[in-house]
Specification:
By secondary structure, the chain is mainly alpha-helical. It has one domain. It has 12 helices and no strands. Helix 5 packs across helix 7. It is globular.
Length: 270
């Protein structure tokens, strides 16, 4: 979805947000009606807040995709899951052990290394992607809050509807996509739908601190896609930064496993 959004760099970012949301909405809304999934939901305020926060995160990220390499934008946005796990620790009381804290520091250091040695990233792009990451972390926390209160499709549908409504506000800056842009227009909606469904469902099943580092796998995909489709290459130091991110991910998995082993042992003893 990110790669196809980058292919639409000549369109206004809010038009891309609208098209991405529309492509998902046409699949989700009929399904919800057919299976009688609640459209309005019970927590209108929080559902709307999740939608607005998500739109800010997505719009600022799409702007970054238009300005800097795909893998650089994706890697910097990975601060979002870290922010999300930390906020979940404070607001949702989800536990994070010392190994996980260390993994977040290492992953954060990897992102800084990538940014520091990728001269194609200007300060405005840095501010935009950090804004996107912060709001993305907030999205994770709100989804966790809503996970036991709303159907996951209701959460997604709110995001799509509000995205389309706000996108229309910028219609005077839209233009008709060209013939070679339509595959990316359709693909961004389809792949966005798949990503939204699985991400939302995942955050309903387990803690945000567990899922956060798995987002880093997308960086590998971004590097591959960026190289073959956008001819984007990286030097040794940014690749070292990617290695730090992967190391942080592995440490988080190890830390969570140790936490589960300790918890199981305590339950057995009691």
């Amino acid at each position: 979805m990110n790669a196809m959004a980058k292919q639409l760099s000549n369109l206004h970012p809010m038009q891309v947000v609208f098209l991405r949301a529309l492509g998902t909405f046409v699949f989700i809304f009929p399904y919800m009606l057919w299976h009688k999934v609640s459209i309005i939901g019970k927590n209108v305020g929080m559902l709307t807040a999740r939608a607005l926060v998500g739109i800010v995160s997505l719009a600022t990220f799409f702007i970054c995709l238009q300005r800097i390499p795909l893998a650089s934008a994706v890697s910097m946005r990975y601060l979002g899951p870290v922010f999300g796990a930390i906020m979940a620790y404070y607001f949702l009381k989800e536990k994070i052990n010392n190994w996980q804290w260390l993994s977040f520091v290492i992953s954060f250091s990897g992102v800084l290394v990538i940014k520091g040695f990728d001269l194609r990233i200007d300060y405005l792009s840095l501010v935009l992607v950090l804004t996107s990451a912060l709001f993305l972390g907030t999205v994770f926390v709100i989804i966790r809050y809503l996970s036991t209160r709303e159907h996951y499709l209701t959460i997604i549908n709110y995001f799509m509807v509000v995205s389309m409504l706000l996108g229309v506000c910028f219609i005077n800056r839209w233009r008709m996509p060209g013939g070679d842009e339509w595959p990316a227009v359709i693909g961004s909606g389809v792949f966005g739908l798949i990503g939204q469904v699985f991400m939302t469902k995942a955050y309903q099943l387990v803690e945000a601190s567990v899922l956060a580092p798995f987002k880093y796998a997308g960086l590998i995909y971004a590097l591959i896609i960026g190289y073959f489709f956008f001819q984007e290459t990286f030097t040794l130091m940014p690749l070292l930064g990617i290695g730090l991110i992967v190391l942080g991910m592995l440490l988080n998995i190890y830390g969570k496993r140790q936490q589960l082993i300790t918890k199981t042992s305590q339950n057995a003893s009691s």
